[in-house]
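#onboarding

Welcome to the new folks! Below is a worked example of what a typical request in this channel looks like: someone posts a single protein sequence, and someone else replies with the predicted structure as tokens. Don't worry about understanding the tokens yet, we'll cover that in week two.

Example request:
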Amino acid sequence: MFSGAISEKNLQRLGKIYKPKRLQTKSRKDLIASLNPKVWQYFRADNGDLPEHYRLRSPALATGACNETVRERSNAESVG
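Example response:
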């Protein structure tokens, strides 16, 4: 990459060029746990990998029933 007068390994050691470092990867469970707890209310119970202290706000959110009732209402209004 450079002129070749000094090897890249030595330039990195001297701090003249950036030495890349591996990124730490997080698991799906760690990523979900790092979210703001206010956002957890929007997760469904069958999502999986939820934090241990996660609680649902309403049973309808657990099953997705609230989405089904909204669909049924909208279908009834469009028919009627």
